[in-house]
């Protein structure tokens, strides 16, 4: 079984919240009918739109979200991609290896409370692939969990791109935060009422990120996470 992650962009002129509503109904039903498993949608709905001031992007048209699901084989993805392409202005698909250091209660058919911060990561050319994975998966994992008030942490290591022209992302990350933490560093870094802890956690996080990323190239998008199906 393989996990597939598709980055989704809306059609030209389509409001993200309108796209989110359509994705949760029509698109989700179509993908399920085709036999995908574990479908999850991270979407810029009305709740996520309220915190888009914390989005970091250089895209002319920001993403509308992610679609994640499992198939027995990625080679069977054709019908799923057809539905995704019909619903979106653009898609970029990847086969990934998933690691889940932290997962909240997962109930199919619900919105996971809080905000799902989607990060699209590129490997700097200055770092060899094996060393990059070591710095991200082994070292940064500890730092992220110890310095942030997260309740969800999903890391998708890109194995290969599936769609033509897909950006060269090496990793796709989802981190869940309470909505109140977005734009509130003290809450984000689990340091409310403790300026020294806040300073230390921010410094530690930035140092760790710089060790495996070019910070100016990181894409970070606040979304709402919908558990459409149970995870396999």
How do the strands and helices of this protein lay out in sequence?
Blueprint: E1 2-9, H1 16-33, E2 37-43, H2 46-49, E3 65-71, H3 78-87, E4 90-102, E5 110-121, H4 129-147, E6 152-161, E7 171-177, H5 185-188, H6 195-210, E8 219-227
Antiparallel strand pairs: 1-3, 1-4, 2-3, 2-8, 4-6, 5-7, 5-8, 6-7
How would you sum up this structure, described in words?
The model has no long low-confidence stretch (mean pLDDT 96). The chain has an eight-stranded antiparallel beta barrel with strand order 1-3-2-8-5-7-6-4. Helices cover 31% and strands 31% of the residues. It contains six helices and eight strands. It has a single domain (2-227), classed as Alpha-Beta Plaits, CATH 3.30.70.100.
CATH architecture, by name, is 2-Layer Sandwich
Overall morphology: globular
Helix content bin: 25-40%
CATH topology, by name, is Alpha-Beta Plaits
How would you summarize what this structure contains?
With 232 residues, the chain is an alpha+beta fold. 31% of the residues lie in helices and 31% in strands. The chain has one domain (2-227): Alpha-Beta Plaits.
